[in-house]
Design goal:
single chain, alpha+beta, five-stranded antiparallel beta sheet, three-stranded antiparallel beta sheet, 5 helices, 8 strands, elongated, disordered N terminus, disordered C terminus
């Protein structure tokens, strides 16, 4: 797997793809993460809001038991509210920037992840390096995330790959396509593309991902370097 960096989009032959696809390779799908879902799943904004509400409720109850004046209660609650609003606004704003700067691309040969709010990074994941594909659906709606288990981390580091790295897999980072609007359909498309890519070479067939969890295992490794 390889990682290349560019400072702007002038190098992109096609949006989200920093090189011209080899002859015969087709783009199957492109998409971006959902900003609202990215804020909830990555930055846990709902949990932070609930904690802030609990703190404000505790301040009110505690103040009433101590006989504090209403003005003092309002001052305490306002401080917590202001801090929560600033924190949540910052996290949500950064999630919006991340969603706008990220593009996931699937061709019939590879997966490409473009990310980076300030400095763009491109992760090229050839199908030959993918050992397993798993899908996790979120609690509401058809949205979800796709995890790519690769043969080797290669040049990847967990912090470099973040936020599109599977949580806590620090020693062997795994790319994660987060907050996909129609994750089940994308996972199914990726599974089918993996099957087709291995079938002509006579290797073991990959199973198309089911709705809850998909897996696709490659019997051999084929590294396809990204053109420079």
């Amino acid at each position: 797997m390889s990682a290349d960096e560019w400072s702007d989009g002038a190098w992109e032959d096609q949006e989200g793809i920093p090189f011209e696809l080899p002859q015969g390779e087709r783009l199957l799908w492109q998409g971006r993460p959902i900003k609202d879902r990215l804020a909830r799943e990555l930055f846990h904004v709902r949990a932070i809001a609930l904690v802030a509400l609990a703190c404000m409720a505790w301040k009110v109850i505690s103040g009433l038991n101590q006989g504090l004046a209403v003005s003092d209660l309002l001052q305490s609650v306002s401080a917590i509210l202001l801090g929560a609003v600033l924190l949540l606004g910052t996290l949500y704003g950064y999630a919006v920037l991340m969603a706008r700067s990220t593009i996931f691309s699937i061709t019939d040969k590879r997966v490409i992840i473009r990310d980076g709010v300030f400095v763009r990074k491109y992760w090229n994941v050839p199908f030959g390096q993918i050992r397993n594909v798993s899908y996790r659906s979120y609690a509401s709606g058809p949205s979800g995330e796709i995890c790519l288990e690769v043969e080797s981390g290669g040049e990847m580091g967990y912090l470099m790959l973040w936020p599109y790295a599977r949580p806590w897999r620090i020693s062997s980072p795994q790319p994660l396509l987060r907050a996909l609007e129609d994750g089940e359909a994308v996972a199914r498309l990726l599974g089918q593309a993996l099957q087709r890519s291995l079938a002509p070479s006579g290797h073991r067939q990959l199973r198309s991902p089911p709705q809850a969890r998909q897996s696709a295992k490659a019997a051999s490794r084929e590294v396809v370097p990204a053109p420079s």
